Amino acid sequence: MGAGHDHHGGIAHAAQRHTGRLWAAFGLLATLMVVEAVTALGTGSLALLSDAGHMFTDVLGIGMALAAITAARRAGRDPQRTFGLYRLEVLAALANAVLLSGVAVYVLVEAVRRFGDPPEVTTGPMLVVATLGLLANLVAFALLREGAKESINLRGAYLEVVADLLGSVGVITAAVVIALTDWWWADPLVAVAIGVFILPRTWRLGRAALRILVQAAPEHLQVSAVRDRLSAVPGVVEVHDLHLWTLTSGMEVASAHLTTDPAVEVGSVLAAARTALHEDFHIDHATLQVEPGESPGVCGRVEW
């Protein structure tokens, strides 16, 4: 005997709730990305080029978030996709992390090459465009901040905007230093600082996405604690075949087999178990199979 509780169909998913803000951030950053790239090529600034590259990954990441939202909505109407396409946002976050890592590595390599013979850069346009980039990132930061708390995909775009915001500050600093002192090493030095700052954060995002894709238990949930709590439900004798995983951001899922005292009423055990998972661990999607203790052979155990 078993029971499942599914709230996915009624979820107002975080990314979907913030679609309007995503489109606004997408348009703003795409425009500034083109301006920064053209100006970087014209001025010869590696720092500004690195900032344009990071802004490109911002735009691409937000674009993938919007694509994932659209696909997830359409998949909701396909009965063969019983979990929808929520995992698309996790794949988008992973792709985001890979792309941003590639840009950061390229900038680091190019910066090291330039340290030997730093080229002259034109600081006037560099300063103006970097300031515009800073303003654009401040607006995008405000637009994405709320959604980043709920969605791993939005968190990826948000982290890139934060990094790009700091990158714009670095480019402005380099432009001012070069303009005042003619110290051309400021440009590749700032580019290196941006790359070093971004890489660890990018790797953490990629690790979080991979953890979801391999269906590891959520880091904030201890499997032993969930097992002990279910075992403490009145009437439960043993808990086995317990699995915990994350479908997508904010959607933890559990399945378990509960061996019960033959005298207890199955409905009350299921209700108490679901309540325990919800109140203690915020798990709202659980599939529980109840096996009365006097019914041997009901469950063929699978050791996964």
UniProtKB/TrEMBL annotation:
Any one Gene Ontology molecular-function term assigned to this protein's record: zinc ion transmembrane transporter activity
Key words of the record: Ion transport, Membrane, Transmembrane, Transmembrane helix, Transport
Membrane recorded as keyword: yes
Transmembrane stretches, start-end: 22-49, 55-72, 84-109, 121-144, 156-178, 184-203
Subcellular location: Membrane
A Pfam family annotated for this UniProt entry: Cation_efflux
Predominant cellular place of this UniProt entry's protein: membrane
UniProt KW Transport keyword: yes
Residue intervals of the Cation efflux protein cytoplasmic domain: 218-292
Record domain Cation efflux protein transmembrane: where: 22-214
Membrane topology: Multi-pass membrane protein
GO cellular component: plasma membrane
Family from the record: Belongs to the cation diffusion facilitator (CDF) transporter (TC 2.A.4) family. SLC30A subfamily.
The name this protein goes by in its record: Cobalt-zinc-cadmium efflux system protein
